[in-house]
Amino acid sequence: MIATATKPLLEVKDLCVDYLTDHGAVRAVDRVSLEVRKGEFLGIVGESGCGKSTLLYAIARLLTPPAEIASGDIWFDGHDLVSMTDSELRHFRWKQYSVVMQSAMNALNPVMSIGEQLRDAFEAHQHFTGRQITTRSEELMRIVGIDAVHLRSYPHQLSGGMRQRAMIAMALAFTPDLVIMDEPTSALDVVAQRSLMLKIKQLQREFGFATIFVTHDMSLVSHFSDRLAVMYVGQIVEIGDTRRLFAEPKHPYTVGLMRSFPSITGELQPLAGIAGSPPDLARPPSGCRFHPRCPHVMPRCRTEEPEFYAREDDLVRCFLFDA
Amino acid sequence: MAIRVVTDQAAVQVPIVTGRRGALGAVTRGLTRNRKALAGLGIFGFFVLLAIFAPLIAPYDPHALQFDQMLQPSPAHLLGTTGTGQDIFSQLVFSTRESLFIALGAGLGATVISVIVGVSAAYMGGLWDHVLNLFTDVFLVLPTLPLMIIVGTYLNNRGLVVLIGVIVVTGWSYGARQLRSQALSLRNREFLEASRVRGERSAYIILFEVLPNMTSLIVAIFFGAALYAVLAAAGLQFIGLGDPNSLSWGTMLYWAQANGALLAGSPVWVLAPGICIAALGAAFALINYAFDEIGNPALRPVRRARAGRISMSHK
Amino acid sequence: MLELPARPQGEELIRTASLTKHFRLGGFLSRRFLHAVDDINLSIHEDEIVALVGESGSGKSTIARLIARVYKPTAGEIFHRGRSLSTMRSHREVLEYRGHVPMVFQDPYGSLSPVYRVSHGIMRALKLHRCDLSREGRQEEAERLLDAVGLVPARDFLGKFPYQLSGGQRQRIGFAQALACRPELILADEPVSMLDVSVRIGVLNLMASLRRRERISFLYITHDIASARYVADRLVVMYAGQVAESGPVEDVLAHPKHPYTQLLLSAVPDPRAPIALPATGEVQEPPRVIDPGEGCRFRSRCPYAIEQCSLVTPRLRLLRPAHEAACHVATSDLAPSAIDKDASVR
Predict the structure, then answer these.
(1) Complex confidence, ipTM
(2) Which domains does chain B have, with CATH numbers?
(3) pTM to 2 decimals?
């Protein structure tokens, strides 16, 4: 399923994103590096405030002031996204990569029907005849599991799950190589969530696009992602194969997260969660950012910042693995 | 159902307040940081000082008729004299008092009525809401100038109280709408439900839970009403509906016009009060904007990176 | 529920009888009604945590608000220790009731007034419900309450404004406010849904410890079955305004009788469980129930629906010890009995 020897589709190197506030720059994303290969499903998990959405928007080049990319590179299929202008980006957007936002009700235009919005997307990026647009729109709706009659519906007339599917249909309009999703299921109930995830996975298998899927709910991606990256306070603390990560989480934060999910099967055990609360992004702790909450803290952790250490293809940002 | 997971720590958009005081603290801090507010407050403060220290600043008694008429500005009479031989500068300075009083008094009156009508409509709901809305809409739609003229002439009393009364009656409805909207949106906030579930009485909830959360809007409406009052008072006085013997900027305009100041070559007589009216109005408008921005962070000016700030060598 | 041996059941604190709430849609001349909850028979006893589980639109929050007297029932009654709520007229009686049954809300950002310090709500609650305390007494009690919910040092926290606290801390303040009244039962409306995952467990553990130490019952409303299993003794599953199934937590999870419960359980993502079942066709969501007729409200999504499901609204019937479900198919092998006999059996 994953071609390991080929060049990655997306390469992010040491990306830093800052928010400019009255009190100076706040670093929301700190030296994040990751790769996504063709057809791969990468999950990014983290709690709120960890910078995962900011990272996503930075990759998609959708950041608006006061947020900006402070440094680092984003290579998409060999092209440098960071230095591109808006008009150059337009060639890429939607054709090579597209974005599915968190809340469809906010992202969809409430006064336009779904069909009209699809047409907008088509016309913005390529010249199609009306007939072609209609055919393609109907096909897209069918692909995501919505009856084509809803092309004439307005967003508020659709249920939450259907709206998200409409957004996915729009994202797939040009069958891009990469689809970036920012918590597309968080506004849905459990059953609709399940249904949507299965549909996304099925589409991914069928069309072969890579996905970056951001969520705060680890268990949601556990069955679907190939690789998983865990973020904490603007940094990636662990990244690796999903199955392995779940079976043997390495970074103490990941371990703590695993211990925060009550299960409906198996034996009922008291869970401890993670002590303390996430720090303010504007004032991260010195040294390792997790050290105030870490049960295995060492003196070194307070003063030095750990780099990534490798363990069988997985990377962990923790001194415990500094072999 | 949008189950948003909220940021467990204060969002990156750092709130404007980091001090220890609550609503009042927020407001004062917000004001002192905002350039528009500072400009507006500066102008307003200037006029307040002018009003307070009028006797010290004005060189002559404003009513004194002993000077030559229609003099041009000169070192003895900084802005010249009127058609009846009064010093314009002194008049201007003393007029600040009455003009400010009208602006603030009428502004306050209109705001109080707006609050009562707007918040009650939101809280009583049902039929009362409909009735109060109708009432508000009627007043909103009435053409204010003709109404003021009719009321002014009908009452046949040109005093200050009537003037303020007319302005209040025509000026409260705009604010009432806004307050009602905000009160309605607050009504379903969970902390209000929490106070109801706690067992608080309705009166307590409105006075101590709802209104404190509306201070920003109420103050903004006050300054909006004060702005309206300044201009409305000037307008009424100019067309002769005020007390012509009073000392007010609008009244000065009235006399200037009656004496054909522009034609007679004394534009300063018209310009001076006109500029003061405009300046005070602008001050209120600026403060109003500032409150909008304080209340709604989305309206604040956005910081952009200054060229050359981006550090490319971060490691 | 965690670590507890079977306890003898305490007294009945709250019982609802045929509780119904309809909201009129449109203006006051409209004839369309939204059936938020219909015919709910529920009971909560001393020393137990009952989880009310359902998706949005299932009516679970409405039930909490009916019990909290935020809404008035359209039909049916609510009994507190045997006394009907409708007989409470005076402000004093209602206040007393509110002291026994306070509520904790979902939104940590919205449940505290932004213009006051966090001590405000607690002090007001103490002033209203603990008249036995003097001013110093109230201050001491406030500090004790913050200790009890894990916010130490209490004095520091009392002086803070809501924006200075994290979501988890604000929810604890919410619990402290509820505790101030010395309650018997706390209505917790999705208290952890808007919190980060690692913070949720702390608050859930707090609920469990309050129940153990202070003997307070909880009505825990949630859409997350896993957390319901973690804290609750009994599970009540709601769908479209009606109770679909109710019984001891482990029993309902091990032997779900209602098709909706089965669907819900299959949809819960569980990293420790084996890989997913295949998707079930077209997406459907719980309906908004406007002027429904007779019949099971789940029938359009139910793989087992039979003719009777469109004709008769199923009632709750006992299928296993203390475990009942409202489904014609699940109860089809039971002998037909008078409707009311099994209705409000605990």
Answers:
(1) 0.83
(2) 20-314 (1.10.3720.10)
(3) 0.81
